[in-house]
Amino acid sequence: MSTIRVESLRHVYSANTPFEKVAIDNIDLTIGHGELVAIIGHTGSGKSTFIQHLNALLQPSSGTVFVDDADINADKISRRDVKRKVGLVFQYPEYQLFEETVYKDIAFGPENMKLSKEEVDQRVREAARFVGVDEELFESSPLELSGGQKRRVAIAGVIAMRPGVLILDEPTAGLDPAGCRQILDNICRYREESGSTVIIVSHNMDDVARIAERVIVFNEGGIAMDGSPNQIFCQPRKLMDMGLNVPHSSLIALELEKLGFPVSCPCYTPQQLKAAILAEKEAGIC
Amino acid sequence: MSIIKFEKVSYSYPGDELPSLCGIDLSIEKGQFVAVLGHNGSGKSTLAKHMNAILVPDEGRVLINGVDTADENRVLDIRRNVGMVFQNPDNQIVANVVEDDVAFAPENLGVAPEEIRRRVDAALKQVGMYELREHAPHLLSGGQKQRVAIAGVIAMEPEIIVLDEPTAMLDPMGREEVISTVTRLCREKGMTVVLITHHMDECVNADRLVVMSNGHIVADGAPAQVFSQVELMESEGLDVPDTTRLLYELKKEGVELSLEALSPADCAEEIMKMLRG
Amino acid sequence: MLKDITLGQFFPGNTIVHRLDARTKLILVVVYIAALFQATGWISYLAVTAATFSCMYLSRIHPKNMFRGLKPMIFIIVLTAVLNIFYTTGTPVLPGWPITWEGIERAVQMILRIILLITGTFLLTYTTSPIALTDGLEKLFNPLKKIKLPVHEMTIMMSMALRFIPTLIEETDKIMSAQKARGADFETGNLIQRAKAMLPILVPLFVSAFRRADELAVAMESRCYHGGEGRTRMKMLKMQFRDWAALVIGVGFLAMMIVMKKFGL
Question: Cβ–Cβ of C178/A87 closer than 8 Å?
């Protein structure tokens, strides 16, 4: 299915004006098929600019983006086609809902792909199922739904295009803990069942620690770190130096270290930390 | 006398079947930092809107400094005394220049121009936005916009500041800016702060934590004490901080320790105490 | 993209042009437009151009910003120019050609007139904060309150509109990107198809504008807004010597332009 390869990507906003700003520079990256990648970085680190290059919403100032080994900016047709392969869910996607009914809104993407009516119908139902939107809601207006439901309908609108790569920019922003958990569970399930590549941009380190298989850290327009959650979160000080948060458990581990108990990594989730402490207690008794 | 007092307050939005507030009794003392936690639709925003007479109770009454919010002649007094900051920073900034926006409330109150100038400068300094006073708000970051909004209400020189999910749309850095600003206003200026939120880590520094669910208050006390009721919080669809979570999980394994340690440092200390026996 | 629109933008500064009272500047713009429409000959056009550039120089607004503001108007400018070139009778440039020397002259003058008109009004919005501008308007139209015209309400509506232009432009950009990501196509198709393609942008934009209006109203009420009665201003408008001087110069300039017109300059 879909592999993403980015070669020396650079993007400059307002080029040749006094407001010129290099948003991202010198990015080389390969994301393999079926990976679940989290991108973290503070606001202005270039991560939003980066993801908009992956489906040709932004064109590189220099460098190349390949999806399945094809240059997505080769011509107009490939720029259009990549939007079907790489689905992008923006922040607060509920603000893009516009149709009279939930069903029609989810169908907007597939209909733009000029699919048959049956095919569209099948995809709408499938997408709704993935995000847990009940078919009973199909005929209601998206505006009448709760915040969490709206968000899920909007995500379904992108999933319905069956993209090989699904990118979500802060899918849980502004939701309460229950809403967050539900969205993340939906996304994980979607990825398991469809086998798609999933890229999540998030500020919530605890979420990232919980679900991601690979973490890419953006800093000042470039990739600062790239590795498994273990590799990334076992360097909490490096993350903090970049102005990033670390999972709460890492903070506790750092405090324990100060008190003379260096917890061995991994210890960035409460479960890991608990196991380490219980082991220490056992050892202490022996 | 409590500065904010809810007496058996009930309220339903027109057209809603279920009430948003059911017989709420709540007293908040002057200078307290009170956090109100609850999931979406728990009634916490409705509670906030009762504090400055944007909404008035169907039943019961709300007293601000002893003044009933239902008294239409006193509405301006109440609103001047209770500054409100809302969730979306873009939708509460009224002017194209930071300092003009901060001046909006005192202008409405008919304050003399020189006095407005003084208050605007003082308010902007308190939130650390004085240097950016001539900037256009739409070019600021989310955290900066919210600090402008906070300056906009403290320019009324209120005794109480109510923040209705002020950090829901901000990144971690912006959240930190807002929370540290209001904490400082409470600790240094003695303002009464009511912070409505669904981020439990923002409640950690509060003097008091009120948990709402379906229009009722289901827990009320010191944050450490409230969070230690892990099962209750979970049944309300809320989370507990990872510090409490860890201690709770350890306790479930039969380890003897107290759940009332919220900051990572306190939590680590509690664990060390346990390990060293 | 849409971000290039500079309508309603304000560039803070501390030049003499910035410091002039908003009322003075409003009146001067009217005087300026009147003067511009007196221009018939090249000399008078030169005079207006010189006046415009001196004001621009005094305000320290970079000409680049002016031309950025002109961008959206290029279509209108070109259209007027073309119409004037082809529809003015006179001596043909080459025998048998539909283009006349008079037509070219008219076209150049029309282009100049439109550019000067826009530049002059931009100079007002670039150097005057929207609050001062609406305050000025409110003061100028104050006498109309006597005939029950809601002057305050109209001016506050105007200042809110100006405040939300950048926010809504930003939002439009975001919604456009989101719909493009769902395969929406705004660039191809005939006029009707393109108009239809705008719906996925317009509907969310309206929904959000209403939501914003609703929240804004609550926020304003919370900050004790209760209409124009008893409101004061942090920045009081006060006519200074420089304002009267500027008005005298402005009116003198208009008189000069009228005289020049009489002499066909």
Answer: no
